[in-house]
Amino acid sequence: MKLPVPMTMAQIAGFIGGTPHGAADITVTGIAVDPFASEEGDIALVVDRSIIARMDEIKASVVISPFGTEKTHPDRAIILVERPKMAIQKICTALAPKKFLPEGVHPTAVIDPTAEIGKNVLIGPLVVVGPQSKIGDGTVIMANTVIGGRVTVGEKCYFHPGVMVADHCKIGNRVVLQQGASIGSDGFGYTTEKPANAELLVSGIKDLPDVRQPLLKIPQVGIVIIEDDVEVGSNTTIDRATIGATVIGAGSKIDNLVLIAHNCKLGNDTIIVGHTAIGGSCTIGDRAIVAGGVLFKDHVKVGKDAIVEGGAAVIRDVPAQEIQVGIPAAPVKEYFKSLAQVKRLPKLVSEVRELKQRLMQLEKQLLEKQLTK
User: Fold this and answer.
1) What architecture (CATH level 2) is domain 110-332?
2) Are 142 and 156 in contact (CB under 8 A)?
């Protein structure tokens, strides 16, 4: 990727708050996505220890790397930083391409006469804003977004194309909803007039009637509340509460293709990675991290600063500051200890079989001794 203009190492170091090591006047013209595909004239990000160990294979003129790299590679031109990801954040922010925003309110937008639109709000083509909804100052709503009735949207939000916000939901300030995000769809709630076969089976009854059991919808009369500075990824669904509110805490970041069911409560600054499905009435504590593809049973609680690794299945509460993995999810040390024991099972089975044969031989010998007396 080419830089807008050539820059010296000293200029970039000043921009990202790093310390130059080597010739500060070296000029670079591009940023390498892959350090090992870099060329002379590029700047490359080198943060992983395994990559630092292969520094000689990197052709970039300048690298950005953590403090200490200059000791092992004193001859390289390096911009030393405390937090490499912050360097990425600053560079990408500066290089972000221009966004093609609507100019005012597009003539094809359908805005109910009772809706309140704040100052400097930009609304794209074919947007619908329902009755009695309020849109805060400086908010951008891109094409084909539908906002229901009595929705409150804060200031400086950014709704990408195709967002759906259902009636009565409340959106805070500076909230970003990516393409196709669905906020406030009905939670998945049904019941039957009489005990369903599933209920009977769980209670131990095996003689089940073979008749229809119509599923009756439980009206979902709650709402979704999204607090300030939240970002919700593309095609993620956050269901409204059955009663009360599904709440997404301030600063939380939710990836693409996530399901958050009715009545869940996420704390502040949580991270939920793609393909995660969180069952109804779960609680996720502040700063907890849920990696990709995690599945949660209903009513599970995850404590503050906990981490649930990718692909786990969570069926019981996760204590604060604990790391869990696996199916079912368990503390990381406990899980890998159990996994190691499972790998030993074939050997243990063989040893038990051998001991059993030896025991049978000893019993036979004792019996023969007793018979010869």
Assistant:
1) 3 Solenoid (2.160)
2) no
225 backbone dihedrals φ, ψ, rounded to 5°: -115, 120
* Cβ atoms 275, 258 nearer than 8 A: yes
In the prediction, which pLDDT does 211 show? 95
Q: Which of 106, 262, 275, 299 is catalytic?
A: 262
Instruction: Indicate the burial class of 350 (C-beta count within 10 angstroms; 0-12, 13-18, 19 or more).
Output: exposed
Angle, CA of 150, 261 and 203, to the nearest 5°:
130
218 neighbors 190 (Cβ within 8 angstroms): yes
Please, which residues bridge with residue 330 across strands? 325
CA atoms of 135 and 109, how far apart (whole Å):
14
Per DSSP, the residues of 148-193 read: -TT-EE-TT-EE-TT-EE-TT-EE-TT-EE-TT-EEEEPP--EE-S
Average pLDDT score over the chain: 94
- What is each CA distance from 308 to 272, 304, 320, 347, in whole angstroms? 10, 12, 11, 31
Which strands, in side-by-side order, build the sheet including 19-21?
Answer: 2-8, 27-32, 42-45, 62-66, 78-81, 19-21
Q: At a CB cut-off of 8 Å and minimum separation 6, what does 26 contact?
A: 8, 9, 61, 62, 77
Report pLDDT digits (tens) over 329-367. Answer: 999 999 888 888 888 888 888 888 999 998 988 888 888
Query: Which residue has 């999204």 as its token pair?
Result: 226
Tokens 């704390």 correspond to 267
Q: What residue type is 86 in one-letter code?
A: M
CB within 8 A of 33, min separation 6: which ones?
A: 1
User: Structurally, what CATH architecture does the domain formed by 2-95 represent?
Assistant: 3-Layer(aba) Sandwich (3.40)
Tell me if residue 262 is catalytic: yes
Whole-model pTM? 0.87
Buried b (16+ CB within 10 A) or exposed e, 119-135: eebbbbeebbbbeebbb
Question: Whose CA is closest to 265, among 308, 311, 296, 307?
Answer: 296
C-beta of residue 94 within 8 angstroms of C-beta of residue 15? yes
Is the bond preceding residue 328 a cis peptide, omega within 30 degrees? yes
